[in-house]
C-alpha cells in the first residue's frame, strides 16, 4: 500500500480516473494535505464517502517520527525514526533570506567519501519519496513556519535514489503541494554521470550542485571512490552538457581539507578546469569529526585559495559555518540518537 505523501499530483489524478472519478479530486486531496494540513482522510469534508473509502483502502497516511531535536545558533538538527526503526537526520538552517532544510535521501551512503561522517554508515536502503517529503512537513509543523528552500545534501547520494528524489521534487514543487519554487530546490551529487545526463533531460528547473572537492583525478581518487568510476574526463563533459541543455548555472562544492586539496596550485588547477563554464564555486570549510583524520584548512589557506580563484575570474563564495556544535554541519550527519 502506497503512502499518500509519496504520490505526485499527476499520479493521483491518474488514480482517480482509473476508479471512475474526475481527476480534480486529486487537487482536492492535495489541498487537504498540503494547504489545510489535514491528514486524516475521514476529515476531508468536501469529498464523498465512497472516495474516502477508496483512499483508506488504497493509501496509508502514516508519518515518520521526530525522535530528537538539537538546537544550535541559527540551526536545528532533527533525528527521525522511520517506520521500520531506521534513523535519518535533517537540518533546519535560519538564513537572512529565509528558512532552509537539508534533507536526507538514503539510510546510510555507499559513496564512501573519506572525509564524510555520513558515509561511514553503509547504505541500508533508499528512502521512499514520502519519507523525504515528511521530513519537511514535520519540520514545518514543529516550528510553525513555512520552509523557503530545500537542499538534498543530507545523508545519502540523491542520484543513487533517483526515482524517489524526482517524485519528491515534483511533490514539493507542485503549486498544490508544498509549493517550494524550483529555484529554491538544490540537488547535490558526488558525480554519478549517467544520472546527471538523465536529470538534464527533465523539465525541472531546480539547481544542481556537484561535490567536486578536487581538481585532479589524483586528488579525487584519494578522497572520493566515485572518481574511479566517473573520472574528471567523464564528469566535466557531463556538467558542460547539462549547462548547455538547461541554460542553468551549476554550483561546484569544494570542501577545504588542510594540506590535501587547499594549495594555491590546487586553486589554479580548479580555475583551469572550470574556465569558461557557467558555474560558481562554494568553498566549504571542513567540519572535523572525531572519527576521521582530516583537518580544516586555516583561514589563511582558504583566503589564498579564494583569492586565486577570484584572480582567475571564477565566481566563488565561502560557505557560512554553522551547526558544528551539534554535529549538524556539512558532512557530519550520522543518524545518531546518543
- For the terminal residues, how far apart are their CA atoms? 33 Å
The counted number of beta strands is: 14
CATH class descriptor name of the largest domain: Alpha Beta
Unreliable residue runs: none
Helicity level, as a percent range?
25-40%
Helical segment count: 10
Kindly report the oligomeric state of this protein: single chain
The number of domains is: 2
Radius of gyration: 21 Å
> Widest sheet: strand order?
3-4-5-6-9-10-11-12-13-14
CATH superfamily of the largest domain: Aldolase class I
Largest sheet: 10 strands, mixed
The proportion of residues in beta strands is: 15-25%
* Helix and strand element order: EHHHEEEEEEEHEHEHEHHEHEHE
Shape: elongated
CATH architecture of the largest domain: Alpha-Beta Barrel
The pLDDT mean sits at 93
Question: How would you characterize the overall build of this protein?
Answer:
The chain has helices at 9-18, 24-35, 49-58, 129-143, 162-173, 193-200, 217-223, 232-246, 264-274, 299-311; strands at residues 2-3, 59-60, 65-72, 75-81, 87-95, 98-102, 106-107, 125-126, 149-152, 185-189, 207-211, 250-256, 279-285, 316-318. It is α/β, with parallel strands linked by helices. It folds into 2 domains: 2-60, DNA polymerase, domain 1; 65-326, TIM Barrel (Alpha-Beta Barrel). The strands form 3 sheets. The chain has a 10-stranded mixed β-sheet, with helices on one face. The chain has a two-stranded parallel sheet with strand order 1-2. Helix 6 packs parallel to helix 8 (232-246) and helix 9 packs parallel to helix 10 (299-311).
Amino acid at each position: 500500500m502506497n503512502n499518500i505523501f509519496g504520490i505526485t499530483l499527476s499520479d493521483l489524478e491518474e488514480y482517480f480516473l482509473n476508479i471512475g472519478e474526475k481527476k480534480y479530486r486529486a487537487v482536492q486531496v492535495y489541498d487537504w494535505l498540503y494547504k489545510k494540513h489535514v491528514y486524516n482522510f475521514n476529515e476531508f469534508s468536501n469529498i464523498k464517502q465512497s472516495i474516502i473509502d477508496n483512499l483508506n483502502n488504497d493509501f496509508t497516511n502514516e508519518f515518520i517520527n521526530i525522535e530528537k531535536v538539537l538546537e544550535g545558533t541559527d540551526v536545528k538538527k532533527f533525528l527521525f525514526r522511520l517506520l521500520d526503526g531506521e534513523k535519518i537526520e535533517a537540518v533546519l538552517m535560519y538564513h537572512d533570506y529565509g528558512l532552509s532544510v537539508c534533507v536526507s535521501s538514503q539510510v546510510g551512503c555507499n559513496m564512501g567519501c573519506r572525509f564524510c561522517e555520513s558515509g561511514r554508515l553503509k547504505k541500508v536502503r533508499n528512502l521512499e519519496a514520502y519519507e523525504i517529503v515528511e521530513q519537511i512537513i514535520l519540520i514545518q509543523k514543529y516550528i510553525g513556519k513555512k520552509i523557503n528552500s530545500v537542499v538534498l545534501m543530507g545523508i545519502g547520494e540523491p542520484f543513487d535514489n533517483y526515482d524517489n528524489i524526482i517524485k519528491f521534487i515534483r511533490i514539493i514543487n507542485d503549486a498544490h503541494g508544498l509549493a517550494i519554487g524550483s529555484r529554491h530546490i538544490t540537488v547535490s551529487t558526488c558525480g554519478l554521470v549517467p544520472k546527471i545526463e538523465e536529470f538534464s533531460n527533465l523539465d525541472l528547473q531546480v539547481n544542481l550542485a556537484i561535490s567536486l572537492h578536487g581538481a585532479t583525478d589524483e586528488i579525487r581518487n584519494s578522497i572520493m571512490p566515485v572518481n574511479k568510476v566517473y573520472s574528471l574526463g567523464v564528469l566535466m563533459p557531463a556538467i558542460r552538457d547539462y549547462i548547455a541543455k538547461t541554460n542553468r548555472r551549476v554550483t561546484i562544492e569544494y570542501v577545504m581539507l588542510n594540506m590535501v586539496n587547499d594549495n594555491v596550485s590546487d586553486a589554479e588547477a580548479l580555475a583551469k578546469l572550470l574556465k569558461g563554464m557557467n558555474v560558481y564555486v562554494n568553498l566549504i570549510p571542513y567540519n572535523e569529526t572525531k572519527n576521521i583524520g582530516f583537518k580544516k584548512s586555516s583561514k589563511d589557506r582558504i583566503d589564498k585559495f579564494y583569492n586565486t580563484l577570484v584572480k582567475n575570474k571564477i565566481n566563488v563564495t565561502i560557505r557560512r559555518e554553522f551547526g558544528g556544535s551539534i554535529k549538524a554541519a556539512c558532512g557530519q550527519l550520522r543518524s545518531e540518537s546518543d
